[in-house]
Amino acid sequence: xxxxxxxxxxxxxxxxxxxxxxxxxxxxxxxxxxxxxxxxxxxxxxxxxxxxxxxxxxxxxxxxxxxxxxxxxxxxxxxxxxxxxxxxxxxxxxxxxxxxxxxxxxxxxxxxxxx
Length: 115
Prior knowledge:
Elements: H1 2-45, H2 48-67, H3 71-84, H4 95-106
């Protein structure tokens, strides 16, 4: 009888140890996980492919903006640029693209502003 209670007690202790380790793993991951993802994001934003892709997309949107005849279309393109490039580093762009991005991000939507 004593042997059975020792086995049951050992099993309960082992199960409690597993749960404790799993819980401490969750605590650790909640602490270190956001920091790890932030570093991964920073590394990703420094890659050549990311920056070239963003520049190509901005060139395409600028071309669409210049070809648009309707003021509503231009406003929609400006909104797209504003949302898509809200946190993009403007220093990586040529002066022409930077000017277009600043126009989209910071100019108001007054009728006389959209050419």
